[in-house]
Amino acid sequence: MTSSTTHSTTGTTGATGSTPVAADRRRWLALAIVMTAAFMDLVDVTIVNIAIPSIERDLSASFGAIQWVTAGYALAFAAGLITGGRLGDIYGRKRLFLVGIAGFTVASALCGLAANSEMLVASRLLQGAMAALMVPQVLAIIHVTFPAHERGKVFGMFGAVVGLGAVSGPLLGALLTQWNLFGLEWRPIFLINLPVGVAGLILGRKYITESRADKAMRLDLVGVALVTLGLLMLIYPLTRGRELDWPLWGHVCMLASPVVFGVFVAYERYKTRKDGSPLVELSLFRVKSFAAGIAVQLTFGVVMGIFFLVWTLYMQIGLGWSPLKAGLTGVPFSIAVSAAAGMSVQKLVPRFGRKVLQAGALTMVAGVLLYIWEAGRYGTGIEPWQMAAPLIVMGVGMGLIVAPLTDAVLSDVPREHAGSASGLINTTGQMGTALGLGLVSVVFFGVIDEKRLAPGEVGTAFADAFQGSLWWVVAVLGVIFAVMFALPGRPKQHLEGEAATAGDAPAEAPAEEAQPAFTA
């Protein structure tokens, strides 16, 4: 028996969170373990993009398969997030965290050993599903492990880890691919997870305290199946249609996907009446600010899905840059996002409210337009230092949006539904990313196909396709700006432990209530 068993009686908490968590001196070790797992997941999302050209060459993968290496992960992650959180509430968050990190490690090994593109895509789907079991437990474990007056500091540390993951993922991917360790080319970007995952599994079993909700909601597996089917019917034909010359069945699937989503909504209403345990709490969408925030999250995910994939392909295939050169080019962007995010939450939003998010959308538009102009002016001779200005402007815009968006969306949500709403925010963002990655077939590869490339024209074609894709990004950001008018003018700040700091009794919320959306 591990030492965690000794503390299971005092460490297990119900939904009321009444356990005296401050007495658990091992909480900082537990924090290090779950944050390492969160960091591993974040890096795994961003590390893959930079290695995509190497994967494409080594496995002779089609562009459709390459899209599914990224979109498959996002789709499996999105489909399983809410269910993963519910499973943790029912069977124990520590148990589900350990199952998730073990499965994630095995899936990483399968990705690193993939013999062909089909095996890699299947392994990425498994990896996304395992991340969906692991990630929801991270914030829940933090919540039940730390007393209210410590959580503000802990969530600040968590935000720093998120920023570090965003910065280090592309750089680490570039270095591992460039170094070609043991002649393995891109494979170390997945195999590096093995020692981290094994260490997390061993230490997590020993130091993380078990917890579960006293009144956990039941699983809605039918809801999960319907929403996953609807997404697949929309995203799979988008991704594969170009290669298959847009077959009739693809158009039928895409047209039928709204019908499946309609059936999903009807079933969720039935499920609510039957046992009060729907996958999605539909009453949340009656809150105008929440419905608008979900629309922003979905469309913002589309922007991210399109931009980061076509940007990588443009730099490495179109411009012929090495992975390291491409990875270093993105550093100013990541730094700008982190700096603007901190300023947005601490200084700007409390004073200017919703206008900060709208300014972020317009700033991103300005950065994208500058990028379009530079890409057209310098063509295939463009250098990283010339990209720095538009990337910094885009990064500042993104930082102004991503940090305060969760508070803005949750501002008017009833407290008892905060956990469900927070999970839905993250799920929607991942769905948007998967949809954006699917759209790359249309907005990027479609342009390249039309050019009927002759030898020596690849660079010009990729540069033109990149500029065309950025115009789509501008259009979607315009939609985001307009929808933001429905957000509350002054979003409430959901600051953990505020009451405790002020000297009041720390009123504990259920473990899943105070979880901020985990965005990758």
TrEMBL record:
<feature type="transmembrane region" description="Helical">
    <location>
        <begin position="154"/>
        <end position="176"/>
    </location>
</feature>
<keyword id="KW-0046">Antibiotic resistance</keyword>
<feature type="transmembrane region" description="Helical">
    <location>
        <begin position="356"/>
        <end position="373"/>
    </location>
</feature>
<dbReference type="Pfam" id="PF07690">
    <property type="entry name" value="MFS_1"/>
</dbReference>
<protein>
    <submittedName>
        <fullName>DHA2 family efflux MFS transporter permease subunit</fullName>
    </submittedName>
</protein>
<feature type="transmembrane region" description="Helical">
    <location>
        <begin position="216"/>
        <end position="236"/>
    </location>
</feature>
<dbReference type="InterPro" id="IPR036259">
    <property type="entry name" value="MFS_trans_sf"/>
</dbReference>
<feature type="compositionally biased region" description="Low complexity">
    <location>
        <begin position="498"/>
        <end position="520"/>
    </location>
</feature>
<feature type="transmembrane region" description="Helical">
    <location>
        <begin position="28"/>
        <end position="52"/>
    </location>
</feature>
<keyword id="KW-1003">Cell membrane</keyword>
<dbReference type="InterPro" id="IPR020846">
    <property type="entry name" value="MFS_dom"/>
</dbReference>
<feature type="transmembrane region" description="Helical">
    <location>
        <begin position="468"/>
        <end position="487"/>
    </location>
</feature>
<feature type="transmembrane region" description="Helical">
    <location>
        <begin position="289"/>
        <end position="314"/>
    </location>
</feature>
<dbReference type="GO" id="GO:0046677">
    <property type="term" value="P:response to antibiotic"/>
</dbReference>
<keyword id="KW-0812">Transmembrane</keyword>
<feature type="transmembrane region" description="Helical">
    <location>
        <begin position="326"/>
        <end position="344"/>
    </location>
</feature>
<keyword id="KW-0472">Membrane</keyword>
<feature type="transmembrane region" description="Helical">
    <location>
        <begin position="385"/>
        <end position="410"/>
    </location>
</feature>
<feature type="transmembrane region" description="Helical">
    <location>
        <begin position="248"/>
        <end position="268"/>
    </location>
</feature>
<keyword id="KW-0813">Transport</keyword>
<feature type="transmembrane region" description="Helical">
    <location>
        <begin position="96"/>
        <end position="115"/>
    </location>
</feature>
<feature type="transmembrane region" description="Helical">
    <location>
        <begin position="188"/>
        <end position="204"/>
    </location>
</feature>
<feature type="transmembrane region" description="Helical">
    <location>
        <begin position="121"/>
        <end position="142"/>
    </location>
</feature>
<keyword id="KW-1133">Transmembrane helix</keyword>
<feature type="transmembrane region" description="Helical">
    <location>
        <begin position="431"/>
        <end position="448"/>
    </location>
</feature>
<dbReference type="InterPro" id="IPR011701">
    <property type="entry name" value="MFS"/>
</dbReference>
<feature type="domain" description="Major facilitator superfamily (MFS) profile">
    <location>
        <begin position="30"/>
        <end position="493"/>
    </location>
</feature>
<feature type="region of interest" description="Disordered">
    <location>
        <begin position="497"/>
        <end position="520"/>
    </location>
</feature>
<feature type="transmembrane region" description="Helical">
    <location>
        <begin position="64"/>
        <end position="84"/>
    </location>
</feature>
<dbReference type="GO" id="GO:0022857">
    <property type="term" value="F:transmembrane transporter activity"/>
</dbReference>
<dbReference type="GO" id="GO:0005886">
    <property type="term" value="C:plasma membrane"/>
</dbReference>
<dbReference type="InterPro" id="IPR004638">
    <property type="entry name" value="EmrB-like"/>
</dbReference>
